[in-house]
Amino acid sequence: MKILVLLILATVPSQLYSGSRAMGGETIWRAETAADFNLCTRDRFTIVQEQQPGIRLCRSWLLATEKAAARPGRCRLTLDGETHVKKEFYMPQSGVGKADIYIYDGGHGRISPESPMLIEVNGHAIAHTGSSGETARAWSRRPISGDLFVEGTNTFIFSGNGVIIGDVDSPVVSSEVSYDGGENWHPGEGEFVIRLRVHGYPPEGTVTSKVIDAARVIAPERDIGPMPTATGAEIELKAEKPEGTSVRVMWRCGDTPRFDPEHWTTWCVGKEAGEMDARYFQWRLELASNDASQSPLVHSVEVNFAKSSMPDSPDWLDRLEVRRHDRPEVIKSSYPFTYETDAPRVQYLRDKYELAGLVSPERSDVENTTEIRHWVSRQWTDGWNRGYYEYCPPWDAHILLEMAPENLSLGMCTHYATVFTQASSALGYLSRNVIVEAHCVSEVFLNDLETWAVQDGGLSGGPDGFAAGLRFEKDGEPLSALRLHRLGAEGSDAVEGIPHPEVEEPHPGHADWDGWYSRFAIPLRNDHLSNPEPAEEEHGMAHYRYDGYLWWCGTPDDPPGNIAMYSNLSNRKADFYPAVNLTWMDFKPAGENKLEVTLHNTAPNFHAYEVNIEDGGWREVSSPTHWPLNAGENAIKARAVNEFGRAGPASRTVIILKEH
Prior knowledge:
By secondary structure, this protein is mostly beta strands.
């Protein structure tokens, strides 16, 4: 595939315009508002600026050399006059204003103004007497002036008082320990869980556009028929680039609505001439700065497509009128998510516990998932009893269902959430654990409502000694973790905790919901039943320290202290709630009064398409398939079915075929 792309960079803002418009046979696609830019995926080093909308580097970022997966007690050092710890952080730029050092002690540290920890930063000693302001449990924070940092390697030495935890499962160990007051140094038993949040712009960050359908830009009025392609493209940025900063533009194009290496070009840098004939297009911006006090700011991105001649359409298409055509906005998460498959251990869970009996096609998804939650809540009692073996199980439903009911292990909130997530996944629902403040719940996608909803099955103090279970609603609408977070921030009192119908009263702990959802995070996978690692050992037994979760953060520029020690922070809703389980259709003529239907989907574990023509019942089809039209109204619905047999939401198209 040959391509013509011209690159123009403009650093002086000019008059901005909205919408698509033809220009000399070329048509413009643009992004210029915060909503436009939030359709783009981005890494943790970039952010969409809401005021004076634009894309820039984030004003803070985390330096971490470990994930903190190991159990905290496996490597724990108590500092004293002889035992010192050394750790180095590489600072790639100058201009850092300040930083915060975060130290994980597992709740065992004992520091105070009378017995401080001593932190030496590049030879400058400071006292750490305890955290000032909010921070997460088992973590302590110490602000450090930017004047103490150098560009390059920065050496930290910890001594005096306190406890420092090492991650013995870290693949790289750069920490060192001295047992003779700093005279001699030895490799640490693990990489110490000490992280540095830098308040300054990172050296680089990346933003990638959604896939742009050039045909819809060039011919927005055409829903059916041969679609035009782009024969060239011109990318223009309106950007501010202070000295020492830069923006590099890249692009790629292809013939499928999602990237496919067999049908797309590789990423290319602009200012190259050639020929292009592709329907789909994507751009990428690489922002860079060699000064932590400066960032480029991109105000707008425009893609000016040169269009092919409009393909001819058969005359009978003039008699078609499209009354309805569902075309969902396909919004991706910036962070890949690994979904559980119908693996052998998943099949065994479903079969051994006869989980299929918990759900019925005659019930709604709310009702089905409520039944799953209620079953989970009644599998064992006294979830905070560590059991005969004093054992905290991993996120594995098989282990939990064998041990917790026999009082052989712990079965706390995170374990109830785990069994719900894995049982509902085994029944074809998209489900995941959600970590909130000192609690853990599940979140499940309700296909019939096209929304995510929290299911909390692990509240102690339920009926008959079993756990209580709730879902949360406002005005009858099931609520996601993000909605609960926002309603809690607003001080809303309109949230209801809805128990299973067999439970007469909501759990009294429902009154604490706003405190629980003051923060929340998701693991970036739900396949722990098939792949136990990587993961945090003893999830939730000690304070969550694993650096593989994605945390919601309203202000990544200046994150609150209870999440500032984690790398992955995002205020982009689609990073937590991307378009899933959706199906849409493209149409083109396939003979007189007949359309070829090409189907697309965003369903994890996709298995097959089903269509329903004129409400004649669902049948499995391959893509493309054919749709014969009759005079008058014609209706078709399509949906994706995953490998568990669970169907996603249906899209619908209604077309009127007029008489000659």
